[in-house]
From TrEMBL, chains A, B:
Belongs to the glycosyl hydrolase 20 family. The keyword Nucleotide-binding does not apply. The active site is at 181 (proton donor). Residues 19-342 form the Glycoside hydrolase family 20 catalytic domain. It comes from the Eukaryota. InterPro entries: Beta_hexosaminidase_sua/sub (IPR025705), GH (IPR017853), Glyco_hydro_20_cat (IPR015883). Its EC number is 3.2.1.52. This is beta-N-acetylhexosaminidase. Pfam families: Glyco_hydro_20. GO terms for molecular function: beta-N-acetylhexosaminidase activity. GO terms for cellular component: lysosome; membrane.
Length: 401, 401
């Protein structure tokens, strides 16, 4: 080889993703995840050909998103002034993601999961009643103040203005509006809500939920947003625009039924149920993530086409800056391959070598990904030998055929 | 306060450990743990008042310990030349530990767990037979070459010289000689061993194990070493010097029976069974480690005094540089408090605040310890309020009493 030139083979790479939505959901409310770590996640997503960062920004536990419209949201709702993402940081992060081929979809989860909103704006929150007294927690179901009050224009104006602020800040055509786990008990306990329902011919709390969601979804729609929501909206038979994407998250075992019914009802879906990577156990659990086949449910070809993709979710009850990277990666690489590669690339015994090599690649770029297979030199060498022996055999057979 | 002086209260601290052996066992064979990370562990041990680093240096998977006597041990047995602890590094580490009040006890595990020894010195290893043929693996029990050959002087000289090398390198009066999981099937399969047993009136493989162990323990004793071994030696009714310490590691559920019987037989014991921290599950598992009471078994006061302490073990099948620190700490802090503090300091509901605060302290010294309680601001504040309300109540009652 000439010292001045590097000769490379001419190579044609033919590759394309199977699903166009290949996502990671990170929760920055239960624990704050600093911007430098979010960038590490985005870098790693790029190296795993993932293209959607679903950012579960706010929740009951904290409101780390700077709001210029309602500054008490972050001033009172964040863990501290050091636990806030300001607009400059967010804009820079969006650009950081963009040049890596990653969309950022922000989530504004309502009407439940809003305890932290009430710290700055208590007037937004439904007052729960019990035994004829206001301001009561209904334990085992929900805390004292964690669901928006759906019977006042104040709430709708507030949510709408906040969606507008996000529309100006984030660049993606989609917003995630949450709408999961809307527990009715607090609404049912409140006499003003009962009266409102009576006056407005809302016959059940489900109708009230429908009323809330219609107004918020219409606001988002008017602002030019397309919407994703958690599956609960559809579970509760609330009517939504038919371009709304449902994120299927319930039941690690029975997600197939949800996929079947939601696509039958004509909705596009993102699958997450089998990919809650915050749940851990001893040993290699990536096999289970890898073996999931999103189209593995009863349904027509038309229905299968409604699967836009999937997301690996990392809820942060037990995750923060200390272990956010090492707990998610490289386990999420198994999900990444499932969402990118063709349906027949599904042999765990072959995948483990690819993924192990991939971990080495990731480690080389100075990130910390846990050893998720328990591989060690001896075992690896033995297994790799078997692998190549089998491969040789296969190629031989093909040559003879 | 005067600007030039810092006034502090005169304070008398009266504190002493309950057990004198408060250890962490790290496994550097299944995966290599770089020296800088070992130092982080030692630092963290100091901040947790732990004083014994039990270093499981070598095992089947690799031999990362430099040997000047038998250099092919690390040259052939380590994962690579970059995965070796050389003598200079080890000496520096011993001093690093010493000034932090920590002893380092090296472990040389024989006669099982020695596959990596055979890579450089195959003549040491027992050849397993099957169906009249040598060099056969006996799957589900053990690999083809992973237990020392106990019928040749070569083996005993080798082990003895290696113990001597460690004696010159490490400064602690104790060595750990392993001796766990001595599976008999390979020895039983080998016709030369059968013949040897016949000639030497060894009636069972247990007798052969006894023969091996007596010779090795005698060597260590002659070299001036005191010895710790895993409980298997005693399980198999092998006689050992009565100053040998047994490390109880079997059965997370029934360790009490082992403690009872081993102390009844007059042995000093180190407890590890309930503290295998490599096993993980979702959520807070430190409660279980914390609630363990080492003296909680049937036995006399004399027996209870034979508990020298305990060790939290981190076997490294799924742990390496990427997650070694965050997986062990601060979960091991629960074990540290159990081994240091008095028997009646055992209220989990109180401990969780101390341990949470302790995690913050550890984080401040720039280490990465996972959030092991799922604490977040809201919950913490609420719980802390309840805690202080209860405390106030208690103090009031005491004042009145």
């Amino acid at each position: 080889m000439n010292k001045m030139f590097l000769a490379i083979n001419q190579t044609n790479i033919s590759d394309a993703p199977r699903f166009y939505h290949r996502g990671i959901m990170l929760d920055s409310s239960r624990h704050f995840i600093p911007i430098p770590l979010l960038k590490k996640h985005l870098d790693t997503m790029m190296y795993n050909k993932m293209n959607v960062f679903h950012w579960h920004l706010v929740d009951d536990q904290s409101f780390p998103l700077e709001s210029k419209t309602y500054p008490n949201l972050h001033k009172k709702g964040a863990y501290s002034e050091n636990h806030v993402y300001n607009h400059e940081e967010i804009k820079e992060l969006i650009e950081f993601a963009r040049i890596r081929g990653i969309r950022i979809i922000p989530e504004l989860d309502t009407p439940g999961h809003t305890y932290s909103w009430g710290l700055g704006y208590p007037e937004l929150i439904t007052i729960c009643w019990k035994d004829g007294k206001p301001f009561q927690a209904i334990y085992n179901v929900q805390g004292q103040r964690e669901i928006l009050n759906p019977i006042q224009n104040l709430t709708y104006d507030f949510v709408s203005n906040l969606i507008a602020e996000l529309k100006g800040l984030f660049s993606d055509p989609f917003i995630h509006l949450g709408m999961d786990e809307v527990y009715y008990s607090c609404w049912e306990s409140n006499p003003n809500i009962s009266q409102f329902m009576l006056l407005n011919s809302l016959n059940s709390t489900k109708d009230l939920e429908q009323y809330y969601m219609s107004r918020v979804l219409t606001s988002a729609n008017k602002l030019g947003y397309k919407v994703t929501v958690w599956q609960d909206v559809w579970d509760n038979k609330v009517e939504v625009f038919n371009d709304t994407i449902l994120q299927i998250w319930k039941s690690e075992e029975d997600w197939r039924g949800y996929m079947q019914n939601a696509t039958q009802d004509g909705y596009n879906v993102v699958l997450s149920s089998p990919w809650y990577l915050n749940y851990i156990k001893y040993g290699s659990d990536w096999y289970e993530f890898y073996k999931v086949e999103p189209t593995d449910f009863e349904g027509t070809e038309e229905q299968k086409k409604r699967i836009v993709g999937g997301e690996a979710c990392m809820w942060s009850e037990f995750v923060d800056g200390a272990n956010s990277i090492s707990r998610l990666w490289p386990r999420a690489s198994a999900v990444a391959e499932r969402l990118w590669s063709s349906i027949d690339l599904n042999d765990v015994e072959e995948a483990k070598f690819r993924l192990d090599e991939h971990r080495c690649r990731l480690l080389r770029i100075i990130l910390t990904y846990e050893n998720f297979q328990g591989f060690n030199k001896i075992k690896s060498i033995r297994i790799i030998k078997i692998y190549f022996a089998n491969l040789k055999q296969k190629l031989k057979q093909r040559a003879l055929a």
